[in-house]
Amino acid sequence: MKTEKVYFILISLILFFVPFVKTNAQIQSFKYEAFKDYNDNTRIAYFYIDGINSEKEEQFVQNELRKNVEILMFSVYPKTDNLNRCMIKTKSALDETIVKNFINKAINLFNQNPNTDINNIPNNFPKYIDTGNKEYDNKIYKAKKEEWIKNHPEEYNKIKGNGQMSEEDMSTKKIKEQTR
Fold first, then answer.
1. More confident site: 86 or 16
2. Which end of the chain has the least Cβ crowding within 10 Å, N or C?
3. Looking at the chain, which residues constitute the CATH 3.30.70 domain(s)?
């Protein structure tokens, strides 16, 4: 009985710490290049990160970050000196710790399920097209997305059920979209 208890505790500790060990191994280097504040109360941070090791992982991290309603844009540029140059745009206060937390959370989710499909969202789901006119682009995307949801309720429920976005996140996003 004691042996079983010891094994249970040992296995529990291993299961608890493995995702964190993997995450720490993933983010090997993180350094800021610049912050830029804009008149529309948005802030952009440019930074370098080493540790996004595959295109699949990069796509997963980007998809996770784009689900966050505070993040307006996230981009990863081609590697230079073995580092990914990244850009993140948000409406909230932004500092190194906040950005690290966003990325750590996304990489941790990837590590918990490395077989995750990078396209958790169906191929026929509308894509956001950036023409440079943010107001127009948002309006078009919102209309296409609403039409898609209306025409594909089963697929939409599947996305919600897969943890793509919790009900709380969806209602928060809806409120924020209505106040824009």
1. 86
2. N
3. 23-112
